[in-house]
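Form 7-S
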Amino acid sequence: MYKRVRLRDTVEVPPEDLADVTPGLVKRLLQDKLEGRMDEDVGSVVSVIEVHDIGEGAVVPNQPGVYYEAEFDALTFDPDMQEVVDGEVVETVDFGAFVGIGPVDGLLHVSQISDEYLAYDGENDQLASRESNRTLGTGDAVRARIVTKSIDERNPRDSKIGLTAKQVGLGKHGWLDEDHKEREKAEAGAEAGED
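Output:
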């Protein structure tokens, strides 16, 4: 999902900064240009980390600045299909929960949260089960798997990522802890019965 990659790109250094073309200046210009943008090869650029090399610079007719090619490291976000992710519920609605999984939110549709029916409780801003009294609300930690993705290269925040938590080992972290304790209790009981 997150990767550190080596990239090359060109930045325009404005005339007022030409006396001090440093890695720090080029890094700031690259951050302004690239952070939050999508690159089809590496995903969404989260952060420009370090500038390694700055070229000689080129003057382009009728342009005020000088263009420098730079080699740099960047932190990128590119979710893979079937990848298991941890996130936090940022919003609940009648059809599911939006889960923050980095710079984008994924949708955990109500049908993909649990085998139990979960109804939206708008008063408490949560999804709730009548069978087990389990709830899922804003701020809850969730483990899910990416099952669909449609990345919007022009506006990465508008990307659509579909999630599921309907398999063993996925779901709200509190539910996973409860299920683990129940399995341990059942195993202990089975071992005691063998004696």
